[in-house]
Specification:
The protein has 427 residues and is α/β, with parallel strands linked by helices. It folds into five domains: 1-57, no CATH class; 62-104; 120-205, OB fold (Dihydrolipoamide Acetyltransferase, E2P) (Beta Barrel); 213-285; 288-421, OmpA-like domain (60s Ribosomal Protein L30, Chain: A, 2-Layer Sandwich). The protein is built from eight helices and twelve strands. The strands form two sheets. The chain has a five-stranded mixed β-barrel with strand order 2-3-4-7-6.
Length: 427
């Protein structure tokens, strides 16, 4: 019998089995028939193309004893310790790299680490937004320190917009650049210039922060000025005392050598003392402004437009400002009492703004040189009576005062006496 016939024979016999649920004799017969088939089915002869496959053999299961389980636990514990040691080594290496990286960079660049506040340099043309507190305020620049301690130098320009935050609907109140004080918490947006400074385009702050900065400025600045002035004067007095001591010694020697030189020596000593006094006064006046010139610009009835004569007057004061140093313009507007209080105030404000607009647009006077204009309305003490026509013409005016730093003031250039008079307080 061939292999194919031997494997096919059980299949043909299985199809001829009677139902099991018949007679017990049939069940015994079927059992006797299946037993040889089972031995043939478990034969080790390989199956070549047969439809009946051999059953899968099970892998013997090796029972675990206590020693085997203990060894496995020890191996797993050792693997975990190896992983933990490797992880710790990696973390230590990473931390060491991070610590040594700044030192290595500093050595490579030839610089040493500094503990002072870092100065932020803004690339030319780079747009940047800075939030922080004003730490220092100069004429055209100020320094902002953010929460990380980095300081940025901000440059003011004529196009810088200074306003309060207007909330969800925008708006906000515009302020002059003089409103930027030390201690003011603000936001600055702008672009960098070639010097690493941030040229401000927009400056925004809240009303509450502005009130806080004004309070700080009003209380701290006078104290600082007094302390700084006192220290400067003490140092100058010591230097002047040493200088005068040397000069007096020389003068004494000259006086002893020739009695006729005593008068000349006394005059030289007096000049030296006067020079010291003048220098002290000049240094003390560096933080003080004085009204050096004042003029009135008149307007037509119920008008805020500049007349040709008013423009000529402003041309002269603008020419004067070009030759002065450390100056500022103070512009105030007035109206005579002819309508309601609010109407007079609005008209006087418009007249003051007309003067500022002419100085800025025609003569390119920087905005930082102009104090925020203000309209007083009808002055409580007008310069002339409102009962006459001439008096009302004089009261319809805007007053321009030139404030000059006393420490930097130079001899003033003479102006037209019919237009410019000595400084007077606002009426």
């Amino acid at each position: 019998m061939s292999l194919t016939e031997r494997e096919a024979e059980p299949v043909a016999s299985l199809s001829s089995f009677p139902p099991f649920a018949t007679h017990p004799h049939s069940i015994r017969k079927a059992t006797a028939t299946i037993q040889p088939l089972d031995s043939a089915y478990r034969s080790p002869i390989p199956n070549h193309g047969s439809t009946i496959s051999r059953p899968r053999t099970r892998t013997p299961v090796v029972p675990f004893n206590k020693g085997t389980r203990a060894n496995l636990r020890m191996e797993r514990k050792q693997m975990r310790l190896n992983h933990v040691g490797t992880l710790r080594s990696f973390v230590a290496t990473l931390l060491l790299t991070l610590v040594l990286a700044p030192l290595t960079f500093a050595q490579g660049s030839g610089t040493t680490p500094s503990t002072s506040n870092a100065r932020t340099n803004v690339a030319a043309g780079q747009k940047m937004k800075v939030k922080g507190v004003v730490m220092r305020r100069d004429a055209d620049t100020f320094i902002v320190r953010d929460q990380s301690g980095a300081e940025t130098v901000v440059l003011l320009s004529d196009q810088t917009s200074v306003k309060t935050k207007g909330g969800a609907f925008g708006g906000g109140t515009s302020f002059g650049q003089t409103a930027i004080l030390r201690g003011l918490n603000l936001e600055v947006e702008g672009r960098g210039d070639s010097s690493g400074r941030l040229v401000a385009e927009k400056i925004r702050f809240s009303d509450r922060d502005l009130r806080t900065a004004k309070a700080v400025e009003a209380n701290v600045t006078p104290v600082e000025n007094r302390v700084g002035t006192a220290e400067g004067r003490i140092g100058q007095v010591e230097q002047n005392a040493q200088r005068m001591s040397g000069q007096l010694d020389e003068l004494a020697a000259v006086s002893n050598a020739a009695s006729g030189g005593a008068v000349a020596a006394q005059e030289a000593a007096n000049k030296a003392v006067e020079g010291v006094r003048v220098a002290n006064d000049r240094v003390s006046a560096l933080d003080d402004y004085t009204a050096q010139q004042s003029l009135n610009v008149n307007f037509k009835l119920r008008s805020a437009a500049l007349t040709p004569e008013a423009k000529r007057t402003l041309d002269e004061v603008a020419k004067y400002s070009q030759e002065a140093k450390g100056f500022m313009f103070e512009v105030t507007g007035y109206a005579y009492d002819f309508r309601g209080k609010e109407a007079n105030r609005q008209l006087s404000q418009q007249r003051a703004e007309s003067v500022v607009r002419y100085l800025v647009e025609t003569h390119r006077v920087p905005l930082r040189r102009i104090i925020t204009p203000y309209g007083y309305g009808a002055a409580p003490q007008p310069i002339a009576e409102n009962t006459t026509r001439e008096g009302r013409e004089q009261n319809r005016r805007a007053e321009v005062r030139v404030l000059v730093n006393r420490g930097l003031a130079q001899p003033a250039t003479e102006m037209n006496p019919s237009k410019v008079t000595s400084a007077t307080p606002p009426q």
